Amino acid sequence: RKEVEQDPGPFNVPEGATVAFNCTYSNSASQSFFWYRQDCRKEPKLLMSVYSSGNEDGRFTAQLNRASQYISLLIRDSKLSDSATYLCVGGGADGLTFGKGTHLIIQP
Amino acid sequence: SQTIHQWPATLVQPVGSPLSLECTVEGTSNPNLYWYRQAAGRGLQLLFYSVGIGQISSEVPQNLSASRPQDRQFILSSKKLLLSDSGFYLCAWSTGEGNIQYFGAGTRLSVL
């Protein structure tokens, strides 16, 4: 059974802090990994893809550890607008598997 | 550029009534198409996916059906809605399995 597990949170973090969360995946055949962001009552939107070498996009850094089968997302200098649910996603030839999401609340 | 349209945005239906939700994609050909349901406070549940016209795969047994009458059109239907069908229905497309999926704005369905 394919599963992607995440801590549902909520993570309550003060504005300007750095926050990190991980997820684990069970399907060792997974080849593609992503982080999506979902705002309340909205559709999920792609935040970034995750590559084996790790990748950075502004304040966001994503990393993949294939040996331990986990993916991480680091957010630096967090903004109020970063408040959302972050979905971890793993996939391959048989489609994508979405985690249930980690709820992040940035507090002023 | 590619766009995905989904309607209606919200829908309130009585138990036992039929359902038809439509999703269309523009700007791409032969996309993979998906229907998901997200219950309140829950994760995304894949309901159906399609790799081509008339090709539908169902992930879970349920009260719903899907059809793909045209390359870029995906329809979710039910003959008789149940209370448990309430939820947030999302259509998505991708260029292939394992690739990034792009979501429509969703339909919030309340069955009363």
- How much of the residues of chain A is beta strand, in percent? over 45%
Considering residues with a beta carbon less than 8 A from a beta carbon on another chain, report the largest interface and each chain's count.
A-B, 21 and 19 residues
Note the total helix count of chain A: 0
Helix content of chain B: under 10%
What does this structure look like?
- The complex is a heterodimer of chains A (108) and B (112).
- Chain A contains no helices and eleven strands.
- Chain A is mainly beta and 108 residues long.
- In chain A, strand 4 and strand 5 (44-50) form a beta hairpin.
- Chain A is globular and about 40 Å long.
- The termini of chain A are far apart.
- The relative contact order of chain A is 0.35.
- By secondary structure, chain B is an all-beta fold.
- Helices cover 0% and strands 57% of the residues of chain B.
- Chain B has no helices and eleven strands.
- Chain B has strands at residues 3-7, 10-13, 19-26, 32-38, 44-52, 55-58, 65-70, 73-78, 87-94, 102-103, 107-111.
- In chain B, a hairpin with a 5-residue loop joins strand 4 (32-38) and strand 5 (44-52).
- Chain B is globular and about 35 Å long.
- The mean pLDDT of chain B is 93.
What's the topology here?
The complex is a heterodimer of chains A (108) and B (112).
Chain A: E1 4-6, E2 11-14, E3 19-25, E4 32-38, E5 44-50, E6 55-57, E7 60-65, E8 70-75, E9 84-92, E10 95-98, E11 102-107
Parallel strand pairs in A: 2-11
Antiparallel strand pairs in A: 1-3, 3-8, 4-5, 4-9, 6-7, 7-8, 9-10, 9-11
Chain B: E1 3-7, E2 10-13, E3 19-26, E4 32-38, E5 44-52, E6 55-58, E7 65-70, E8 73-78, E9 87-94, E10 102-103, E11 107-111
Parallel strand pairs in B: 2-11
Antiparallel strand pairs in B: 1-3, 3-8, 4-5, 4-9, 5-6, 7-8, 9-10, 9-11
